[in-house]
Design brief:
Blueprint lengths: L1 H21 L3 H4 L10 E7 L3 H12 L4 E4 L32 H9 L6 H13 L4 E4 L2 E9 L2 E9 L2 E12 L5 H6 L3 E3 L13 E2 L2 E4 L3 H18 L7 E2 L3 E4 L1 H5 L8 E10 L5 E8 L7 H25 L7 E5 L9 E3 L7 H5 L7 E5 L4 E2 L9 E2 L6 E4 L11 E3 L11 H4 L2 H20 L4 H4 L3 H13 L19 H9 L19 H14 L16 H13 L6 H10 L5 H4 L11 H15 L2
Parallel strand pairs: 1-2, 1-6, 2-3, 6-20
Antiparallel strand pairs: 4-5, 5-6, 7-15, 8-13, 9-13, 9-14, 10-11, 11-12, 12-13, 16-19, 17-18
Helix pairs in contact: 3-12, 12-14, 15-20, 16-20, 17-18
Length: about 600
């Protein structure tokens, strides 16, 4: 009997030891499948960003052999190396998560928004290692594409110190800057180039980590502010805190005066980690060439230098941060935009803000059109706030090159539409759709481009996505603003980045115009049509109809007019004052409303841009 107890005790000890041996940090549990015996695959996914991981997992689940290539030492990119874990979620008005499927799997496994970075690394590795047909190549960078005429058939890469070639039937570009697409000859625009503002690029951000932050004080301060903001209906209602995430301190952030003039602190997005530290997304950096590695490295160093001054300011001015200490920063920058490839369909700002559905939808989005600060617009803006919209398969299919799909922030969106569609949850759903589409394309020997014109192909892809967890319900949502008589003018100026509706899609069309509104609108429009020789137009403090007519007349002719009726007649001849707005400009002393001014400036733009 005694010997049995001894044996039992020994077995218990052995079991404890075995459990202890397996209880290593999560990031070391999973071994990625990095060895391969072939250089030929069904699919190559370039880019280990979250979108690329979703694409590789989706393709493997649909029966393809997959090579996933990442030029860094770990998967997860922006979420892991960039430490961006405060996700931009997309919900329908009734609360339905629009980005279901593989993104939702990841989201549930990491425990929701503001997740722990080490947990995210583990989950990504686990998702990949579970699919036996995926081979991963880390520290492997693109050298050049291999093409046969306009078909992409392989890629040449630098793997450690070796140059190797890999071939596949189909390719998915999940790099943040669409590197494979660009080097293969796909046309693209850069930053705001499509609206005449190539240098209008949203600032990049370096996420930094703090310890010894009093979460209880952060929680109570921001939620109190939120309650008071709702009572007084001011901006404080847009702040708040949960158990592991918080957002606010906008006034405190913008009040900071940076030592580096090409830098800006804004309101904090705060994500609490399992060790009690917090990650802060708030420091915006300008003057970084996001396609140049040395420039990005320099941007990180500049930000680290600025943090020496930011931390004392935060300790003194931010409730709950009195004892905060800097732990470190992310390894890479959070870059919001660079290339926008041109595909079979370019998603535009009207698609987003008119809540348009597409028959070839492969995912849905609803995030506000959030244009972060630029070097010329330090405050940033919200162009508008959609209820929901769909992204078509055509926006993943680039022009000029076959066998290739592009997913993520550099997919085929206009620069303004990208303010919403660029977010990671949408990109991961695109990755899932691209994986399914690749399997269909290979199975049926049908090119991606031909698939865009095949209703049967699109229906089968959508059905397969829905079987595998995606949410793709058709919808019809009318935007009441589209019925307004001045809406065509709103659309024209909004599509140029000259008009913003904010979170409430409010353009105050019946409101009166002030000096600043008309000056900014007219001067910025003139830049769009390259009327630089006119100089800056100035408007009186309380403008009348005559003042506005004089300004538009001068913009047209470079001459100062004085006779109100003569100036109006010239503008009528040029269809700048059209019949639908003529009555609004009948009296020269009238105080004009925004609606007629918007249409007037819109008509001027249409004339000069012909």
């Amino acid at each position: 009997m005694k010997s049995k107890k001894v044996i039992l005790l020994v077995m218990i000890v052995l079991m404890i030891n075995l459990i202890g041996c397996s209880s290593v940090p999560e990031k070391e549990i999973v071994n990625l499948p990095q060895k391969s015996t072939t250089n030929k695959y069904d699919l190559i996914v370039l880019g280990g960003e979250p979108e690329g991981i979703a694409a590789a997992v989706s393709a493997a689940r649909n029966g393809l052999s997959v090579l996933l290539i990442e030029d860094d030492e770990a998967l997860g990119g922006l979420m892991t190396l960039g430490k961006l874990n405060f996700l931009d979620m997309n919900h329908a008005k009734d609360g339905t998560l629009l980005t279901q499927g593989i993104f939702e799997e990841f989201y549930d496994k990491v425990g929701g928004n503001a997740f722990d970075i080490e947990k995210a690394k583990s989950v990504f590795n686990e998702m990949i290692s579970h699919e036996k047909s995926i081979v991963v190549k880390l520290n492997t960078s693109l050298v050049e594409p291999i093409k046969q005429e306009n078909k992409l058939v392989g890629i040449k890469v630098k793997e450690n110190e070796d140059i190797n070639e890999y071939f596949a039937k189909r390719f998915i570009d999940a790099t943040t800057d669409a590197d494979l697409a660009a080097s293969s000859g796909v046309p693209y625009t850069f930053a705001g180039e499509d609206i005449g503002e190539k240098d209008r690029m949203m600032g990049v951000t370096l996420v930094f980590e703090l310890e010894d932050v009093s979460w209880s004080k952060v929680f109570s301060y921001l939620n109190y502010s939120r309650v008071m903001g709702k009572i007084y209906k001011d901006e404080r209602q847009h702040v708040g805190a949960k158990l592991n995430s918080a957002w606010g301190y906008t006034e405190e952030g913008y009040s900071y005066e940076p030592r580096d003039p090409l830098m800006r602190l804004r309101g904090f997005n705060i994500a609490k980690q399992e060790n009690g530290n917090v990650l802060i997304n708030a420091l915006v950096i300008f003057g970084v060439d996001v396609l140049d590695e040395k420039s990005k490295e320099n941007g990180i160093e500049r930000a680290k230098e600025e943090l020496k001054y930011i931390l004392p300011y935060v300790q003194e001015n931010f409730v709950g941060f009195k004892k905060a200490k800097l732990v470190g920063t992310a390894e890479e920058l959070y870059v919001r935009e660079s290339r926008h490839i041109i595909g079979e369909y370019v998603l535009n700002i009207d698609d987003v803000l008119e809540n348009r559905d597409k028959e070839d939808r492969i995912t849905l989005g609803s995030y506000p059109v959030d244009v972060q600060p630029t070097v010329n617009q330090r405050w940033g803006t919200v162009v508008g706030n959609p209820e929901q919209y769909s992204i078509p398969f055509r926006s993943l299919v680039p022009l000029n090159v076959e066998n290739l799909l592009v997913v993520g922030r550099s997919a085929s969106y206009s620069s303004l539409a990208a303010g919403s569609a660029r977010v990671i949850p949408v990109g991961m759903c695109e990755g899932q759709a691209a994986g399914v589409a690749s399997a269909y394309s290979i199975k049926h020997d049908l090119s991606f481009r031909k698939m865009t014109k095949s209703q049967n192909a699109i229906t089968e892809i959508q059905n397969k996505l829905k079987e595998q967890g995606a949410y793709l319900e058709p919808f019809s949502i009318e935007n009441p603003l589209t019925k307004h008589w001045a809406y065509e003018g709103v659309k024209t100026l909004r599509s140029l980045g000259l008009l913003d509706g904010g979170y409430l899609n409010e353009y105050n069309l019946e409101g009166s115009v002030d000096k600043w509104f008309i000056e900014n609108l007219l001067n910025n429009m003139m830049k769009k049509v390259e009327l630089k020789e006119h100089g800056t137009i100035e408007i009186p403090l309380e403008p009348t109809t005559k003042d506005i007519i004089e300004a538009v007349y001068f913009a047209l002719t470079k001459e100062k007019g004085s006779n109100f009726e003569e100036m109006k007649n010239i503008l009528k001849e040029k269809d700048i004052i059209t019949d639908d707005i003529s009555s609004y400009f009948a009296e020269e002393s009238k105080k004009p409303q925004r609606a007629e001014v918007i249409v007037l400036v819109s008509n001027f733009y249409k004339l000069k841009s012909k």
